[in-house]
Amino acid sequence: MKRLVRMSLLLVSGLSLAPDALACASCGCTLNTDLGSQGMVSGSGWHVDLRYDLVDQTQSRSSDQAVGLAVPNSEEVEQRTRNGYYTLGIDYGFNRRWSVGLQLPWLDRYHTTYAEADTALSSSDSNSLSDARVLARYTGLSPDMSTGLLFGLKLPTGTQDVDFSAGPATGEALDRSLQPGSGTTDLMLGAYHFDNFNARFGWFAQVMYQHALAAHDGYRPGDSFNVNAGLQYYLNDSLTPQLQVNAQLRGHDTDDDLVGQDNSGGRLLYISPGVTFNLGEGWHGHAFVQFPLYQYVYGVQLTPTRIFSIGASYNF
Fold first, then answer.
1. pLDDT value of residue 77
2. Which residues of 26-56 are buried (b: 16+ CB within 10 A; e: fewer)?
3. Which helix (H) or strand (E) segment is 141 a member of?
């Protein structure tokens, strides 16, 4: 039972945040694919994890409908945004109740678009550090350590100076929502709870709210509210299949330049089957796929048809 509780806590606390979970036209509409690898495990000591998330946005959508846009067009027509997130997490537990973690995401983003009235594609291909996060966890709200609070900051460590590198728009700056960093410091607040139905089945739920404390150069990402819930089946000591439902509500971005803010925000619902592995001697791993159940976006945005996540972690 202690092993089951530790596995549950690892999975639930790993749901704290997605890599730059931005529901915008081009930022990668990832919800929470960060399973078992955010680094907030019970007990004291160090925890390190490495995670990869692939979000390939290829489907143009307006409201809850897929749309086809002709070119040339009086508005920009985005074609594709492929996002690869490599996230290194380092966590330290002071005791069973308190821990603090740092997540460092590296973003590999390829973006193509038809600018207004253009018939030739413009593209950008960037590799850089995105916005880091510092997140603390307090898990002493219940005697069995099954209920906890999450709080921290997203830091403005990502660059905001990426330009188009090919096509008619070469040398022009990408929209603010496409930049690796938002330039803002964001407050993050959340809570979670997990439990077991019996020796074989468990469940978890978590909420997380994110809010930019101030605008940067006139730009502020919209507030987001994430809800995650899931079921676990403890197949054996090594393998735990899992099924999640992930939801996100996100408001419009605001920008003094009024570029792209109408094409940001929305309501998203995903189902996420996957599996976690207990590899022994402190090692864990995960592999998940997210499928959209419902996607409602404001304006016209690119959305993914699936999201992939894999990762491995080690407890010292």
1. 93
2. bbbbbbbbbbbbbbbbbeeeebbbebbbbbb
3. none
- Determine whether 19 is exposed, middle or buried from the number of CB atoms within 10 Å of its CB (0-12, 13-18, 19+): buried
Question: Binning pLDDT at 50, 70 and 90, where does residue 26 land?
Answer: very low
CB 131 within 8 A of CB 157: yes
**pLDDT above 90 (res 133):** yes
Which pTM value belongs to this model? Answer: 0.88
Q: Outline where the chain has alpha helix (H).
A: 2-13
| DSSP assignment string, 218-270 | TEEPPPEEEEEEEEEE--SSSEEEEEEEEEEEEPPPEETT-SSGGGB-EEEEE
Spatial CA neighbour of 209 closest among 150, 266, 156, 265: 150
User: Taking a C-beta distance cutoff of 8 angstroms, is the pair 121, 111 a contact?
Assistant: no
